[in-house]
Design a protein that fits this description.
Largest sheet: 8 strands, parallel
CATH topology of the largest domain: TIM Barrel
Strand order of the largest sheet: 10-9-8-7-6-3-12-11
Number of domains: 3
CATH architecture of the largest domain: Alpha-Beta Barrel
Radius of gyration: 27 Å
Strand content: 15-25%
Number of strands: 17
Shape: globular
Oligomer: single chain
Helix content: 25-40%
Length: about 450
């Protein structure tokens, strides 16, 4: 049971040092008890007290680490129902489904195709993380062979899908070094699967026929000493599946129900007959509240929008997405190419760079740090002032790359033109279009 604020206060150092961000240890204790603070914010808490406070400070949905290597991930760890309340921390993970009866050559081709789905966005590499290997016929040797091939020849981490303990054991022996997710413990095999998970220190998915039926299975497994669990309420109809996801999240966050305070796994691949519909359902689970989403396949037109949705949903709403300040060449520009400047708000960058690229006019695009604000907002807030823009242009090094001294500023920031000219004597400041859609015609005309 979670500790009260007063119980937590008794375990704190009572220094009132204010280094945690609040004026007193009592206030910090109250925030910790209500989930509004993190225990790590206190630099002086003792190891003994930290252990006792672990339950009170733990997220209501336990964070679970799955996999090894470059695509290792954490799922769960959420503390709010709506991201605007604070933020969502660990993004939804995407898995593609393969059967243990798939041919070796087909599997190799599939893994290479899936690995190619990597997209750069806002300086991040967006890609799916997992392969779900499903036992097709109870052949443990075939299952182990495929698990070994996936683990050793690809970056993907694995979900081992079988309810047969012997098949699962063979799969673990083949790819246990990748720390796969075991799927799934049910009422029929909970003892065997719980033992396997504990012996191999692996995360374990729990499957039942309803949210309520998950509770006794979860309690039994945690009673065995297992902590890394993933919930599957068994619903395969989209409306019911959504209701179950919300019910799990609300029970953990609002009611403090630790029995189902774990991340979830969802199966759009079992809810639709085609990948397009799966994608729509998968998008629903990205927003509410799937920890892992299993699709029947990955295709560019399917996984790319899901990855973008995931990026948007799991970006901290209190911190705008930004790109790094600097010089961005578009279309192999040369010393005579035009120079544009704009803010580092990610959406602004992608819209402007996209229009410049579409114009087919090689261009130097200067991105100035505006703390993630758009042009109009940054100008109004003094983050895109003329003197600041001028100083940035002088320091960024663009003068060494061009022979002319012409700078194009956004139309919405036309008011800063005079101040930029004062800061950049000898330069010609050109006011560009107000709307990014007019950039191609503007560049071609110039």
């Amino acid at each position: 049971m979670a500790l009260t604020g007063i119980q937590i206060f008794k375990l704190l150092p009572k220094t009132n040092c204010k280094e945690c961000g609040v004026p007193t240890c009592l206030a910090f204790a109250m925030n910790l008890a209500s989930g509004k603070a993190e225990l790590d914010s206190c630099p002086y808490v003792s190891d003994e007290a930290r252990e006792k406070l672990a339950e009170a400070s733990a997220p209501p949905i336990r964070p679970i680490k799955v996999g090894k290597g470059v695509r290792e991930f954490t799922t769960g760890g959420e503390t709010v129902l709506y991201r605007h309340e604070k933020t969502f921390y660990n993004s939804t993970v995407f898995a593609g489904l393969v059967g243990s009866d798939m041919g070796d050559a087909d599997l190799d081709t599939k893994l290479k195709q899936w690995n190619a789905f990597q997209f750069e966005r806002v300086g991040l590499n967006l890609r799916p993380e997992m392969v779900a290997l499903k036992d097709a016929n109870g052949d443990k040797d075939a299952f182990a062979k495929k698990a070994k091939a996936i683990a050793e020849t690809s970056e993907f981490n694995l979900i081992l899908m079988t309810e047969n303990a012997d098949v699962m054991k063979a799969g673990i022996e083949a790819c246990g070094f990748k720390r796969p997710l075991m799927y799934a413990a049910t009422a029929a095999n909970v003892d065997d699967f719980g033992t396997l998970a504990k012996e191999n220190d692996l995360p374990l998915a729990v499957k039942a026929d309803s949210v309520e039926a998950l509770v006794p299975l979860s309690d039994k497994l945690t009673g065995m000493g297992l902590k890394d669990l993933v919930m599957d309420p068994g619903s395969r109809e989209p409306k019911q599946a959504l209701e179950d996801q919300v019910a799990i999240r609300r029970a953990a966050l609002k009611n403090g129900n630790r029995s189902i305070g774990f991340p979830s796994i969802t199966f759009p691949c079992e809810m639709a007959s085609n990948l397009d519909t799966e994608t729509l359902i998968g998008g629903m689970f990205v927003a509410k509240y799937g920890g892992i989403v299993v699709l029947s396949d990955f295709a560019g037109e399917s996984i790319f929008p899901l990855l973008l949705e995931r990026l948007n949903i799991f970006t901290d709403p209190q911190r705008p997405m930004t790109v790094t300040e600097g010089i961005y060449p578009i279309g192999d520009p040369n010393e005579n190419s035009p120079v544009l400047v704009t803010t580092n708000f990610a959406l602004t960058y992608f819209i402007v760079s996209g229009e410049v690229e579409g114009s087919r006019v090689p261009t130097w695009l200067l991105i100035k740090d505006s703390e993630g604000l758009s042009v109009m907002t940054a100008w109004a807030a003094g983050k895109f002032a003329g003197d600041d823009v001028g100083i940035f242009v002088k320091k960024c090094g663009i003068a060494d790359k061009i022979k002319h001294q012409n700078l194009i500023i956004p139309g919405y920031a036309a008011a800063i033109a005079g101040d930029v000219e004062e800061e950049l004597p000898g330069w010609t400041i050109i006011v560009g279009p107000r709307e990014a859609a007019h950039i191609p015609a503007f560049l071609k005309a110039k």
